[in-house]
Amino acid sequence: MPEVESPLGHWPHSLSSMMACLGCTLGLFNISRFAILTVHFGANFIFQFIFLSFIFGLPLFTLQLCLGQQLGAGVIDMWRISPLFQGVGISLLIAQAMMGLYSIIGVSWMFVFFRDSFITKMDRYRWAEPFIYYRREHLIPLNGTYKISETVPDYFSGVVLQRHHLPSGTAYGTIKFQLAFNLAVVWMIVFVSLSKGLRSYGKVVYAFTLLPVFGTFILCAKILGLMPPELVNIIFPETSWGEFFLNPKSWLAAAQETFLTWGLLGAAIMQIASHNKHKHFLQRDSSLVAVITITILLLVAFLANTCVQILKSNGYSYLPDSFDHMSTYVFLRSDKAPLPPNLATTPVRYMVHNSFVLGEKVFRPGMDYTSESGYQVLRLATELVPATFAVLGSEQVSPFWAVLFYFILIMFGIAQQLAIWHCVITGIMAIKAKILKSWETTITFFSCACGFILGLPMATELGIYVVYFFDYSIGGIWWLIIVILLQIIAVFMVRGRPYSGDNVVTALFHSNHHPCLLSWAPALLSFTWNVILPVALMVLCISTFKSGSFRDIFIWHHAPVAEYWPLWSRQMGSMIQLLPILCIPLAAVIQSYRYLNNGPSDILDRVQLLYRPPIGEHMDEAAVQEAAAAINNNNTNANVVSEDPPPKYTPPPSYTTATGARIAKFLRQSIRRSVRRIANVLGESSNTRQRFTIPSNQTQPPPPDYNAVLVEMNHSTTNDVAITIPDGIAAHSRISTLERLRNLEATATALTAAEVACILRSSFRRSTVRHTNTVNNTSFNDNMASLSAQNLVDSAAPIGETSLVLDHLPDSTEDKSHIHNTSSVI
């Protein structure tokens, strides 16, 4: 199946597609989540994540890659293969837009940490000093040191989020200039990078991907060298190999992280792959993305656990927390102070975890669910690493490494935002690609401006609550799993060939690969797409919905009593989750109305155009119009008189072929008549092709043997051909070709071999016998015109009847000359 090229252009460099895909799998958020989850579950989580990545994570990633390159289209224009499921593409585009609108605020937070990392060796990090609005009783420490467990959360709440009214328990919705300015800077970077489409995006993606990847290697090498010697053998302190298969919470967290890494931005991955050139080396791109992504995540996991060990060597324990109040935002506890009873009796790896896009939520035992959420965003960047640099101080570790760390996170965050917003922009342009392609810069500007305006509520003191609300509603991935599951069902089960798994997988494997690989890899991957992947996604959807308590936001019949969210917010959150899912049946109804009310006269053809149009591999508009016109012409122009070209000699159909064709035709016509009766009951009519059968009143003699004809041909001495119809034959009769041979005027004038071949050839052609003297002959001409060489098998008569139908033959002697030359007409 040949690939179709995207009308929105191609990547300027061969590795641009791979770099852009790397921005989808490596971002600011999944790096932070993965690192913190390894701290909570130990090395068990790493092996579970890798195992589940091979089971359904990487197959889901490669599926989006192959679909994008094979179809040459994104999530909006790909549904020309099945217009009934256009709503799936709309839902995926809405999901990408909503995630891009609220997740970008995390990048603006990193700008504040990045700014305050530029200090000298004689200075102290700002997050290692108390904030003036908080902890007023501890402004002057007695021993010259500050509590890191208080200064780090105060810095994030007071300096970064600017929650100045947090100690008083109130919050205001005024926009903070610092957050709004940083948000505007990020959107300006996105606009400049995407303003020229692939020409600009294909170049800047190298900088936003390669720099943070190389920077991560350098930073991890430095931080790992700071590991305390006595703790080198226990890098992952929460590891418990005996619970590898027994802890379901660890497996669920690994499954959620697998989907968030490889499938969350599947629509963006598909759009990126659609810009590849013909026969792009897709296996190289997918292999590089998988290897680099897993390597960076492993390095970050070692980095996070090294920071935990450094804090432990300095007398601190790292524990989950919640952002809601000053009393709940405590993630560091001194080893000398006793732990609360709920934390002392239940290890962190046994607590229920729920991962979202920006952060994760931990249900701690004994927590007050009415005022404490257990949610925190970007724990690696806002808690663990700042506390480590604050404990070590600028004397032991140069501030350069803090600057490098936040620079890496900013670059990863912008690279992921570019991938998300590129999908949104191209999805809008895909509605009318030829018209909107010239407006690409304008669409990019207005979309970025709208994104900035809609993100301003997160630049207030209530911004962290807005982030948690959207992350709980949009980042609750159960509804997105349903949409992706419907996408797989629509492509492989409803549409099918030529877009089955066996054909789509050819974009990843080529014939020049090693024969050993080609013998098992394509078949295994196709089986995974069709069987394993849908089952795994279904199980993950149900488990996520139950563990995250998402059922609570659908309870509207009473006011909230013990719930965290008020009633109005639960109603809004549930609508946000249901809106993308409801777009699918709504779009299906609209598409059904459009296709069933317009198009070919036969309703079966309209249904086929709705869910499985016969457009093959060609995805352009011209091909769609030509396919619809072809089907329409085949049904509405059946009565148009056309002269067939002289066909090549074809032997007459056998009895078995003719009988089988008649049975198939009978079954097909029965089905069509049933559907037309239903359509007539519903008020719709369609033209049917009628065929008149004239019964013969005269018994026809049996046809002669072909040998007799050949013997008669041997005695031929003239080239004149004259065919007459005996006077005894009624006007309404059937005359076969052999009957014409039997009724030759004279035995002396036989036929030659060429003439017999001409007569046999003419028996396969059907044309119109035109008569202008009688008005009744008009209906005969209209019906005879529908019999052509294309309807040879359909028009075959069973044994006992002749194949030529002549109605209303003239009886006058003046027309006998015309009847004698029937062979020239037939």
Automatic annotation (TrEMBL):
Kindly report the protein's main subcellular placement as a broad class.
membrane
> What's one Pfam family the UniProt record gives for this protein?
SNF
List where the protein spans the membrane: 20-39, 45-67, 88-114, 171-192, 204-224, 288-311, 403-431, 443-470, 476-496, 517-545
Stretch list, region Disordered = 636-655
User: Which keywords, in A-to-Z order, does the entry hold?
Assistant: Membrane, Symport, Transmembrane, Transmembrane helix, Transport
Q: Which InterPro entries does this one have?
A: Na/ntran_symport, SNS_sf
- Subcellular locations according to the entry: Membrane
Q: How does it sit in the membrane?
A: Multi-pass membrane protein
Q: Which family does it belong to?
A: Belongs to the sodium:neurotransmitter symporter (SNF) (TC 2.A.22) family.
Identify the PANTHER family for this entry: SODIUM-DEPENDENT TRANSPORTER BEDRAGGLED (PTHR11616:SF323), SODIUM/CHLORIDE DEPENDENT TRANSPORTER (PTHR11616)
What this protein is called in its record is Uncharacterized protein
Species this chain originates from: Molorchus minor
